[in-house]
Design a protein that fits this description.
Layout (H helix, E strand, L loop, with lengths): L1 H5 L8 H23 L7 H19 L19 E7 L2 E9 L11 H5 L6 E7 L7 E5 L7 H7 L2 H6 L3 E5 L21 H24 L4 E6 L1 H12 L5 E5 L5 H8 L2 H4 L4 H11 L16 E6 L7 H11 L5 E3 L10 H13 L3 E4 L2 E4 L1
Parallel strand pairs: 4-5, 4-6, 6-7, 7-8, 8-9
Antiparallel strand pairs: 1-2, 2-3, 3-5, 10-11
Helix pairs in contact: 3-11, 7-8, 9-11
Length: 368
């Protein structure tokens, strides 16, 4: 069992080897970042449109009192009504569930009409592994560029969680997988603050609908978010006090800051760039987990990579301080190094046990 193997203690490598490993991990992240920077739109009229519409959206939200109270923007989602089709990929049998998105901004909200034109996001897709009898759920929220059933289930080790007795659901975020136009054609998150706000708002509403579905069944739920999914899951924790627990890995907490640190030089030289960044910083707290109130969810855990250059340690530290919790579970590696880090498996297992939905039995994790 993958989780049983990950409960073992991770040996501390020699100092020289640790330094070399962190340097290599950081270099790998920088290479990945350089590739993603090429996906930004060109500096042309689209940039000016984004700035102008961001200003209108910020003014609109200020008039409504949303900027002062960001949680007022997020309405509770009704329970998802799932339509399920059985599928099989390799040795994995799962349910491909669909349900209607709860996100319906008023047409008067700046950017709402433009956002609605971007791909087909009215239907949410989710990969579900469930048991016939009642069981606790782990709702996994994936990162940017994901949304493929096989890759998502492998990254979250969904089959191991299911074998341990959990139901697992992985909702696909807006503009990803079957809701998008291609793995490397990301409309969300991107370099447009308006689309980022609408995309994050829809992601929060869509995952909350799955959480409401689980609550309606009288079953407990732990959220598990990764990278962009950490942003979404941590925001939901501020809005859903009845979660059993939450664990996030390499979590983004500030998309505006991410834009600033990852901006290609051609963007930074634009004469309206400072205005653009200020507007992004003004809008991001509406959906950011550090812009929303601290959660009352009793069990909160974070894991992250010491050499991560995509989601830098400063973002992780901000979430830890906002949550007012114990130190982060750090692993020696970059953004993608979590996949082989035993620290991560232990942190996830600790969260499930502390949340009261699992126990350890003979070195194995078992759902309660």
């Amino acid at each position: 069992m993958a989780f049983a193997r990950q409960l073992r203690q991770e040996p501390e490598p020699p100092a020289l080897l640790r330094c070399a490993s962190l340097t290599a991990a950081a270099a790998g992240d920088e290479l990945l970042l350089a590739c993603f920077q090429q996906l930004h739109t060109g500096v042309d009229g689209a940039f000016a449109t984004a700035v102008d519409e961001s200003q209108r959206l910020a003014d609109h939200l200020e008039r409504r009192g949303v900027l002062a109270n960001p949680d007022s923007w997020h309405l509770p989602s009704p329970p998802a009504v799932l339509e399920e089709t059985l599928r099989r990929i390799g040795h994995i049998s799962f349910s491909h569930a669909t349900y209607a998105s709860a996100y319906r901004p008023e047409a008067a909200v700046p950017g709402a009409a433009r956002y609605a034109e971007q791909t087909h996001n009215d239907t949410v897709h989710a990969w579900v592994l469930r048991h016939p009898d009642p069981a606790p759920w782990v709702v996994c929220v994936h990162g940017a560029g994901m949304g493929d059933p096989f890759a998502d289930m492998v990254v979250f080790r969904a089959t191991s969680l299911h074998a341990a007795g959990f139901n697992v659901a992985i909702p696909v975020l807006p503009h990803h997988g079957p809701r998008g136009v291609g793995r490397f054609s990301l409309a969300f998150p991107g370099d447009d603050p308006v689309l980022n706000l609408h995309g994050a708002s829809q992601a929060i509403a869509d995952v909350r609908a799955m959480v409401a579905y689980i609550a309606e069944r009288g079953e407990r739920c732990v959220l598990y978010g990764l990278s962009l999914g950490g942003y979404v899951a941590a925001a939901i924790a501020a809005l859903e006090p009845d979660l059993a627990g939450i664990v996030v890995g390499v979590p983004v907490v500030d998309m505006a800051d991410l834009m600033r640190t990852h901006t290609p030089a051609r963007f930074a030289r634009h004469p309206r760039y400072d205005e653009f960044f200020d507007l992004a910083s003004r809008l991001d707290p509406v959906t950011s987990p550090v812009g929303l109130p601290p959660p009352s969810v009793p069990v909160r855990r974070i894991w992250a990579g010491r050499a991560d250059r995509l989601v830098r340690p400063g973002q992780v530290t901000r979430l830890r301080e906002h949550w007012g919790m114990a130190p982060v579970s750090w692993y020696q590696g970059g953004h993608l190094g979590f996949f082989v880090a035993p620290t991560v498996g232990r942190c996830v297992a600790d969260t499930l046990v502390a949340s009261g939905v699992a126990r350890r039995r003979e070195g194995r994790l078992v759902a309660v």
